[in-house]
UniProtKB/TrEMBL annotation:
<dbReference type="InterPro" id="IPR043137">
    <property type="entry name" value="GGT_ssub_C"/>
</dbReference>
<dbReference type="Pfam" id="PF01019">
    <property type="entry name" value="G_glu_transpept"/>
</dbReference>
<keyword id="KW-0808">Transferase</keyword>
<dbReference type="GO" id="GO:0006751">
    <property type="term" value="P:glutathione catabolic process"/>
</dbReference>
<keyword id="KW-0012">Acyltransferase</keyword>
<keyword id="KW-0732">Signal</keyword>
<feature type="binding site">
    <location>
        <position position="498"/>
    </location>
    <ligand>
        <name>L-glutamate</name>
    </ligand>
</feature>
<keyword id="KW-0317">Glutathione biosynthesis</keyword>
<protein>
    <recommendedName>
        <fullName>Glutathione hydrolase proenzyme</fullName>
        <ecNumber>2.3.2.2</ecNumber>
        <ecNumber>3.4.19.13</ecNumber>
    </recommendedName>
</protein>
<dbReference type="InterPro" id="IPR000101">
    <property type="entry name" value="GGT_peptidase"/>
</dbReference>
<keyword id="KW-0378">Hydrolase</keyword>
<comment type="subunit">
    <text>This enzyme consists of two polypeptide chains, which are synthesized in precursor form from a single polypeptide.</text>
</comment>
<dbReference type="InterPro" id="IPR043138">
    <property type="entry name" value="GGT_lsub"/>
</dbReference>
<feature type="active site" description="Nucleophile">
    <location>
        <position position="409"/>
    </location>
</feature>
<feature type="binding site">
    <location>
        <position position="111"/>
    </location>
    <ligand>
        <name>L-glutamate</name>
    </ligand>
</feature>
<feature type="binding site">
    <location>
        <begin position="475"/>
        <end position="476"/>
    </location>
    <ligand>
        <name>L-glutamate</name>
    </ligand>
</feature>
<dbReference type="GO" id="GO:0006750">
    <property type="term" value="P:glutathione biosynthetic process"/>
</dbReference>
Length: 599
């Protein structure tokens, strides 16, 4: 049943403005600690990220007249300082931009690429896939970084400031330091063993041979110098020249402590791999959901197609009137089906014939939606359908299991006073990436190539996500912007979390658009994540609630996941106001800021 949502969205905007407490960033000159606030309302633009120093860097750029793109790059660079285990110039990501003047959405695919020498057996030795843990902390897992090229491309196309200008807050932060919090220490502790394999990593992140102390100041002068070099020479310095040579040498000859006993397999990254790396400017995915336009990343990310297909499956259900059990049941089943199709059909379109248009067609979604029953649960793994030849309720065929994806990623969302919006997800793959720091450069290299299938996910089904020369591994990153019928922003959001990114974005969108939750509460709501697996992951808020038993009575099975994702978002309010929202608790809470507070 279709229904108009315009009046409901206006109510959401008003209610959000009423319940939210505004928070503006302190002026850049102040050195006092910046408080983390999960929601802020005000004027002049907004930034939401996981970190207060990073959000403040974006606000500083907005306050000095920069636009949303300038601020997004500044925020991302600062996250490379304060969230070095999640993002940085050694990684990649996806940049989604709304241009207020043309009322259009555009994207940049800055995903890492495999070396040109890679083939489908990249992670196979003696006919067997190498152990995942051994692949992670190795040069073999490192893809050509795409983040610096993404920053330059975004600034060149849509920015108003030079790279050197927007890198200044992050350079200052790396040089002067930031205050260590519990999350940074915990993430360091979780990686302590493998960080000690690599002397340069241990020297930087285990100062004095010990874990960083909460409340202490952490400085990264090597990264400050790297940012200064990029500011002077441009990002080409990372793809050609001394810095590029350092990256190649580090990947191909991982600097391991001989006494650690760790076998860090070398990679085969070349100067040519770096010099020939290019971002891809491409059209976003678009899904119509109850009259709204939902825009996200097209392949090589599976985020846009999978979130979009699930929304299309839910299109004919009035989730606003469903009970909590009915809502969660339909959401879980739509996720299950969409992941079944993701596993079979989505890979790097430069190598694979990806039916993006067909996956996002309402006709195909309707043929899959009829698999969902109100009183029963589909058995995973569900077989994929054929989007080019939809057959109603077709559950035949062989399923492609969901492959592992690291969850150490970060997301930022930015809006400016002109109405431009950026939704940007960036990563170095799992927490701590490859664990390998480029000597003297202050950043960790990604382990993004482990997002490939090591061997075919199913011997009976073509796997679109096997490695290949220059190929981009499939991602789940889902930076999303929603527009109204007049092509003006309603909300933008995204999340880290590996494959759970897709379910986090889908649940947050339906919580906000359908269930009437203020954005900060839609982000904070306890999460469920079903990825075509035998059981659905639940956060404690759902796992320990009566809803779990009611869903189990239908046939659902569950397992506990302590924390899923760490989303941020912005919402356009009336009269030029913006609402920024971030996590209340996850990852220690996020940081929402506006240029000028409405309170």
């Amino acid at each position: 049943m279709r229904r108009p949502v315009a009046r409901k969205l206006s109510v959401l905007a008003v209610s959000a403005a009423v319940v939210s407490v505004g928070a503006a960033a302190p002026p850049a000159a102040e050195k006092t600690a910046v408080e983390k606030v999960p929601v802020a309302v005000g004027y002049g633009g907004a930034v939401a990220s996981v970190d207060a120093d990073a959000s403040a860097a974006g606000i500083e750029v907005l306050r000095k007249g920069g636009n949303a793109v300038d601020a997004a790059v500044a925020t991302a660079a600062a996250l490379g300082v304060t969230e070095p285990y999640s993002a940085g110039v050694g990684g990649g990501g996806y940049f989604v931009y709304y241009d207020a003047k043309s009322r259009t959405v555009r994207t940049i695919d800055g995903r890492e690429t495999a070396p040109l020498s890679a083939d489908s057996g990249l992670f196979v030795e003696n006919g067997t896939a190498i152990p995942f843990a051994e692949a992670v902390s190795s040069g073999l897992s490192v893809g050509t970084p795409g983040t610096p090229a993404t920053w330059q491309q975004a600034l060149d196309k849509w920015g108003s400031r030079r790279l050197g200008t927007v890198l200044k807050p992050a350079e200052r932060l790396a040089r002067d330091g930031f205050t260590v919090d519990g999350t940074f220490r915990e993430q360091t502790a979780a990686n302590e063993t493998r960080f000690r394999y690599f002397p340069d990593t241990a020297k930087l992140f285990l100062p004095g041979g010990r874990l960083p102390v909460v409340g202490s100041t952490f400085k990264n002068p090597d990264l400050a110098r790297t940012y200064a070099e990029l500011a002077r020479k441009g990002v080409g310095a990372l793809y050609r020249g001394d810095l590029a040579d350092d990256i190649v040498d580090t990947v191909n000859h991982p600097p391991v402590d001989p006494g650690s006993g760790w076998k860090a397999r070398p990679g085969d990254l070349t100067a040519k791999d770096l010099a020939t790396y290019r971002t891809k400017s491409q059209a976003p995915t678009r899904t119509s959901y109850h009259g709204l336009g939902v825009y996200s990343m097209a392949p090589s990310s599976s985020g846009g197609t999978t979130v979009g297909e699930a929304l299309n499956i839910l299109e004919n259900t009035d989730l606003s009137k469903a009970s909590e059990v009915q809502y969660l049941h339909r959401y879980i089943e739509a996720s299950r089906i969409a992941f079944a199709d993701r596993g079979r059909w989505v890979g790097d379109p430069a190598f694979e014939d990806v039916p993006t248009k067909e996956l996002l067609s309402q006709r195909y979604a309707d043929s899959r939606e009829c698999l969902i029953k109100d009183d029963a649960v589909l058995t995973s793994p569900v077989a994929p359908g054929d989007p080019r030849n939809p057959a109603a309720c077709d559950a035949r065929g062989t399923a492609a299991p969901t492959t592992y994806e690291g969850d150490s990623t970060t997301h930022l969302t930015v809006a400016d006073k002109w109405g431009n919006v950026v939704s940007y997800t960036l990563t170095i793959e799992q927490t701590g990436g490859s664990g390998i720091t480029v000597p003297g450069r202050g950043f960790i290299l990604n382990n993004e190539l482990t997002d490939f299938s090591f061997t075919p996910a199913s011997p009976d089904v073509h796997d679109p996500n096997l490695p290949g020369p220059g190929k981009r591994p499939r991602s789940s990153m889902s930076p999303t912007i929603v527009l109204d019928r007049h092509d003006k922003p309603v909300v933008a959001l995204g999340s880290p979390g590996g494959a759970t990114i897709i379910t986090t974005v889908l649940q947050s969108l339906t919580g906000f658009l359908d269930r009437g939750l203020p954005l900060v509460d839609a982000i904070a709501a306890p999460r469920a994540s079903q990825r075509n697996q035998t059981t659905t992951e639940l956060e404690p808020g759902l796992y320990n609630s009566p809803l779990r038993a009611k869903l189990e009575a239908i046939g659902h099975g569950f397992r506990l996941n302590p924390e899923i994702g760490a989303a941020t978002g912005v919402q356009r309010l009336p009269n030029g106001k913006w609402l920024a929202a971030a996590e209340k608790v996850r990852r220690g809470g996020g940081s929402a800021m506006v240029v000028w507070s409405a309170s």
